[in-house]
Design goal:
The structure holds 2 protein chains of 2 kinds. Chain A is α/β, with parallel strands linked by helices. Chain A contains 11 helices and 14 strands. In chain B, strand 1 and strand 2 form a beta hairpin. Classes of the chains: A alpha/beta, B mainly alpha.
């Protein structure tokens, strides 16, 4: 991943009637990164994506694709962008191949060889001449991806891409995205309300709530398992008082973990071995040591300050 | 741009309904030829028949107790004049050949317009209904070019529909009634209510050219409704209704001076060749200007709405 910016959003705002759907949103997506837009339903993710691809007008702010303003030169900007907005809808009365041919005619330089390439890439070769009417949802999704990749875009934009896919399909889709980003240097922007999905797919996520940007974090940062950072380590010991005095001697804050009767200590992972040695030396029986990773969901709820019910 | 028009034309051509409608047009022309052929029997006493018809018509026209709308009164008078002309020039009525048949087939063109309206009403709205509009508008092609390509394609369909009516009626008419007669005179009552004649070939040329113009106007309305309301059904229904109600509306409002500015008072330019305009004092030049203004306004509305629209949902 380089620091070159592929897509830049500046103060993007969308007002419909009196309602501000997207409020002063700014972020930049680097070359070769998978960037997530994460937020609950109705947070403004889809509206943001629709503004980026020019489906809806921009009230204020700008979208720059490799420095080109989408509203000023739509055709130049969009020639770098491939997109699937919500479900990939195709002409059902045409075959998959004719659908691709149709959209290929809209971009200069996309020929039949390129169509064959993307069909191969998404694995639709055997069914490409069937009418889309006969496709399963997974196949339509793959055809949608083929269409988005057709003009070899440097930026791929996918709105809720895994909606309606089965677990195997989601996994396959994720692998596709990761390889496109890492091997071809493509920047991928995905939106989702599913934390677990974002955790597996993205390098960084922008958390959006009520149209506003809450924060931009790298996935590693959010999970709290960045290699150098201090981590919460949970000790299972027989003598709490003795153990706590040893922690205090080492200048470590300690608090009992809720129900389990274990002790949580925040420390550098490299110091764990020494601490265990000290405990054992003092005669404390240590029956378990493990690091506690915060789940993305915990971080998310902490950041959005929201208690949500499933 | 050519590739965009190619795209739109392919999408029209690969729908089954397009071919069903085309086949229906040919079938209607064929059925008309069969029916006319079945009723075509030479009548030795045709002069006497026409004289009887005229006497009856004159009696009706001069009877103050018979109510008749002005337009029908004019038509009846015209029929009398034509009958008199036929008797004087020894032309038996009901004569058929490929060319006379083709002038009659102009009314099949009206049905054809209804079919083209279906295509025009669906061409923009259908993309919204199926959701394909999202893929269409996220290509590196601006919206002006997209809507223009759609409009041009619809116009091509209109042109081809009339070409189909023309060619199929010449061929079918020729097979049934023979191909002679293109240079023979066609007798009709002109706009000044004078019996006139023109070669059948010239009449066909004018008739089809003017029918094409009125077809373009109806289809443009359907296209505009399709682009503005994003509903195929509404676009198709509304334009068919205007197609049928429009002319009656003009008659209904004929006492108002602004009646002549209504689109449907002007769509049929044939009224300046035969029959006469619905409001006295109208000229063909006036109608052409009115049609041009409507044409520009309707298309400006379609374009503006389509280009500005937020595509959500």
């Amino acid at each position: 991943m380089s620091n070159e910016v592929a897509l830049e959003i500046k103060n993007l705002t969308k007002v419909i009637g009196r309602k501000t759907i997207v409020d002063d949103l700014s972020f930049a997506v680097r070359k070769g990164e998978v960037f997530g837009l994460l937020g609950p339903n109705g947070a403004g993710k889809t509206t943001t994506i629709r503004m980026i691809v020019g489906l809806i007008g921009i009230t204020k702010g700008s979208v720059l694709v490799h420095g080109v303003d989408v509203t000023k030169d739509f055709e130049a900007a969009m020639s770098h962008v491939g997109a699937i907005v919500e479900n990939p809808e195709m002409y059902k009365y045409l075959s998959g191949y004719r659908n691709l041919l149709h959209f290929a005619r809209m971009t200069p330089g996309v020929n039949r060889t390129r169509i064959d390439e993307v069909v191969q890439l998404v694995g639709l070769k055997s069914r490409i001449h069937d009418r889309v009417r006969k496709y399963s949802l997974g196949m339509r999704q793959r055809l949608g991806l083929a269409l988005a990749l057709l003009r070899n875009p440097s930026i791929l934009i996918l709105d809720e891409p895994t909606n309606g896919l089965d677990p195997a399909g989601i996994r396959e889709f994720r692998d596709h995205l990761r390889s496109l980003a890492s091997e071809r240097g493509m920047s991928v922007i995905v939106s989702s309300h599913l934390l677990a999905e974002m955790e597996l797919m993205c390098d960084r996520v922008a958390i959006i709530q009520d149209g506003k940007l809450v924060d931009i974090r790298s996935i590693n940062e959010m999970k709290g398992d960045a290699p150098t950072a201090a981590q919460t380590t949970r000790f299972k010991v027989d003598n709490h008082e003795l153990a706590m005095s040893i922690f205090a001697k080492a200048d470590l804050a300690c608090q009992p973990a809720s129900e389990s009767g274990e002790l949580d200590v925040v420390l550098d992972p490299l110091a764990v071995a020494d601490l265990v040695a000290a405990l054992v030396h003092a005669g404390v029986k240590v029956s378990g040591v493990r690091t506690v990773t915060r789940t993305l969901e915990e971080s998310f709820l902490e950041m959005t300050g929201e208690v949500r019910h499933a | 741009m050519l590739k965009l028009i190619q795209n739109e034309s392919i999408k029209i051509a690969l729908r089954l309904r397009t071919w069903i409608m085309a086949a229906l047009i040919v079938v209607i022309v064929l059925v008309a030829a069969i029916v006319i052929n079945a009723h075509l029997k030479p009548n030795a006493n045709w002069k006497q028949t026409l004289l009887n018809q005229n006497a009856q018509a004159e009696a009706t026209l001069s009877n103050p107790r018979v109510y008749m709308p002005p337009i029908d009164r004019l038509r009846l008078k015209a029929q009398v004049a034509i009958n008199t002309y036929d008797i004087a020039h020894n032309l038996p009525p009901g004569h058929q050949d490929a060319w006379v048949f083709t002038t009659g087939a102009l009314s099949v063109g009206q049905i054809g317009i209804v079919f083209v309206t279906v295509v025009a009403g669906d061409i923009v709205a259908g993309e919204f209904a199926s959701g394909t509009i999202k893929a269409l508008l996220t290509q590196p092609v601006n919206r002006t070019r997209i809507i223009l390509s759609k409009y041009v394609s619809v116009m091509l369909v209109t042109l081809m529909m009339f070409a189909l009516v023309l060619v199929s009626s010449i061929v079918i008419g020729g097979i049934f009634f023979g191909f002679n007669g293109i240079g023979e005179p066609l007798v009709f009552v002109n706009a000044k209510q004078v019996v006139t004649q023109m070669t059948t070939g010239s009449f066909i040329t004018l008739g089809y050219a003017f029918a094409l113009i009125s077809g373009v106007m109806i289809v443009t309305i359907a296209f505009m409704i399709s682009a503005v309301f994003r509903s195929s059904a509404l676009a198709i229904a509304l334009s068919i209704i205007t197609l049928f109600v429009g002319v009656s509306l003009v008659q209904l409002l004929s006492s108002f001076t602004w009646d002549k500015y209504i689109l449907f008072a002007n769509t049929d330019l044939m009224q300046y060749i035969t029959g006469g305009p619905p409001v006295t004092g109208m000229t063909m030049g006036f109608s052409i200007v009115v049609l041009a203004v409507y044409f520009i306004v309707l298309n400006a509305v379609s374009w503006r709405v389509f280009v500005q629209r937020d595509v959500s949902s």
